[in-house]
Here is the input.
Amino acid sequence: MYEWHWHIEWQTPYEYHAHAIKRVIAEERSEFQRVLLVELFRFGKSLIIDGKVQSTVSDEYIYHETLVHPLLITLDNPKEVLILGGGEGATLREVLKHKSVNSAVMVDIDPVVIDFAKKYLHEWHQGSFDNPKSKLIIGDGYKFVKETNQKFDAVILDLTDPIKDSPSQLLYTVEFYKQVKGILKENGGLVTQATSPSFSLDTFSAIYNTLRNVFKYVSASIVYIPGFDSLWGFVYASDYRSPSSLTAEQVDELIKEKINGELKFYDGETHEMIFSIPKHIRVKLENE
Ligand code: SAM
Here is the structure.
């Protein structure tokens, strides 16, 4: 029969999620994590880190467009963008679609993920690593933020989940968000992936409320990602303005004005959907 990838969600260790594997493309235990690249029958080529699907070729655009565009269209012509994590290069791809961006610095801790991405994940990065506006740094995002003298219009946190003892754990803390605020230009903003409101509303709400301790405007979006078997959450934070204040018409106008090329998922109508948070989640976010 088939070989299966069993995924035990760290937030709900009482259930399995399973995908049948067509073939293993590459596998390596790095200094930081177990990196696995497979072809799944249902989702095609997929990157799995420490047993967790990070993205699949068939639906990665849902995650990456939702992570990048609501924040960047809300800011006034962001020029310098910092990405922490984002190993596949797809976040970088989406950032470079913004006409105003003239520098995108990406810091990922794991050279093995970057090596896999460059060799096998062309569909994700589409050559973005070679764009003259891109600068790739292999290093710890926490350390980078602490030590840099540079200021950014936007900081995008495309990290693995905040699992205990993982390399990303410290990048979900109030201390770290304060450091990020310190490297943002006036009217800048940040966005982070915020794990699964289905598997753990507590974690999603903790990230949202940690950011509310540091920034004036904090808003959340949620979207269903088939390859993750779950709803996924994102949190946007700024002292300037929030994407949730934009109307569908404004989003369509801003996309036309600010973005080169086609988007597959995000537009005005999608914006309204992803920023419409169901009542039980809203209550949890607001009453933490
Ligand atoms: N879509 C994803 C998800 O669902 O969790 C995140 C994708 S991306 C592959 C996550 C990246 O974060 C990995 O490439 C990993 O190496 C990187 N990472 C983890 N901790 C980091 C740190 N402290 N500094 C920089 N990059 C880090």
Notes: Residues 60-74 form the longest helix (15 residues). The mean pLDDT is 95.
